[in-house]
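dumping this here so i dont lose it
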């Protein structure tokens, strides 16, 4: 009996999980993560290959990737034995972040503008309530009847 309950609970769990995973929002989120990862690579390449070479003109030594502040010098014959702050790498990451944040801001702003236009279009094409239309017709008919009766008196 306990085994059956375990199997049915597992089957119910798997069924619930399948329904959750195949919902539109989860699938949309998965697609967004994949596209976001690809977009992040494009931005990183843009920063490293186009923006930072221009920035490196202003960094002493000329190569921004190796720009660093050495805290504890290492032995000259052992590569990377020094303790250093990697300014160039950090600067590249900051520029990546700023570009991605700016693009996300532009996308959200465009979506908000589109949503506002959609709401205005819905308000303009909203179906008219038939009760309101009949009340307006009755009011107009009563006004004409009142005017006709007033003109005859």
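and the seq i came up w/
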């Amino acid at each position: 009996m306990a085994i059956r309950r375990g199997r049915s609970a597992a089957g119910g769990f798997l069924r619930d999980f399948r329904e959750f995973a195949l919902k539109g929002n989860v699938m949309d989120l998965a697609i967004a993560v994949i596209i976001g990862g690809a977009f992040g690579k494009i931005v990183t390449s843009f920063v490293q290959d186009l923006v930072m070479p221009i920035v490196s003109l202003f960094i002493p030594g000329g190569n921004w990737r190796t720009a660093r502040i050495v805290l504890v010098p290492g032995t000259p014959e052992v590569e990377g034995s020094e303790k250093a702050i990697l300014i160039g790498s950090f600067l590249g990451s900051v520029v990546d972040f700023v570009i991605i944040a700016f693009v996300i801001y532009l996308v959200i702003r465009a979506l908000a503008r589109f949503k506002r236009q959609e709401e205005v279009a819905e308000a303009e094409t909203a179906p008219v309530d038939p009760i309101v239309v009949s009340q307006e017709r009755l009011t107009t008919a009563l006004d004409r009847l009142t005017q006709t009766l007033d003109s005859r008196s």
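The chain has four helices and two strands.
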